[in-house]
Amino acid sequence: MAMEVKPDKEAILIDKLARKIVESGMEGPAITILQIIKPVSVIGGELAYFYLAPFLPLLDDYGYDFLDIFEKRENIEKLIKKVEKLYNEQAKNKKEKDSIINRLKKLFWHN
């Protein structure tokens, strides 16, 4: 039932999903769940088609595309790596922002 999704579309959907996961602060649970389901991704994808079939038309092609993409174990690994990368970037930016704010506080309020 799986159709082939173009690699560039795969990358875009993986990136969008990874960003949503990190923005929502759910990177820990998402990575854990993805690691757990990775070994059975093909079987899980087929079961998802069966159970989600009534709802897939509501999602247009995106529902089918997501199911097709995540039937491949390597795409689950790509998503995990992308989530980790985005989370690390976010943590680094937050740390830099916090240090700038702390320096400004010291400069103006701790004289």
Notes on the structure:
This protein has helices at 7-23, 27-37, 41-52, 60-69, 73-109. It is mostly helical. It has a domain at 7-83. Helix 2 (27-37) packs antiparallel against helix 5. The chain is elongated.
Features:
0% strand; 111 residues; mainly alpha; 78% helix; 5 helices
In angstroms, what separates the terminal alpha carbons? 68 Å
Binned, the helix content reads over 70%
Number of beta-strand segments: 0
| Structural class category | mainly alpha
Rg over CA atoms, rounded to whole Å, is 19 Å
Low-confidence stretches: none
The average pLDDT value, as a whole number, equals 85
- Give the topology string: H per helix, E per strand: HHHHH
Measured by DSSP, the beta-strand proportion falls in under 5%
In short:
This protein has 111 residues and is mainly α. 78% of the residues lie in helices and 0% in strands. The protein has a domain at 7-83.
Task: Write the SSE topology.
Layout: H1 7-23, H2 27-37, H3 41-52, H4 60-69, H5 73-109
